[in-house]
Amino acid sequence: MTEGKGFEEILKCWKHEKVINDEKVIEAFRHVKRELFVLPHLKEEAYVDVPLPIGYGQTISQPTTIAIMTQGLELKNGLKVLEVGTGSGYQAAIIGFIIGKRGKVFTTEIIHELVDFAKQNLKKAAAKNVEVIESDGSMGYVNEAPYDRIIVTAACPEIPQVLAKQLKKNGIMVLPVGTLEGQKMLKVKKLDEEGKLFDVKNLGDFVFVPLRGKAGFR
Question: Can you give the pLDDT at residue 163?
Answer without folding.
Answer: 96
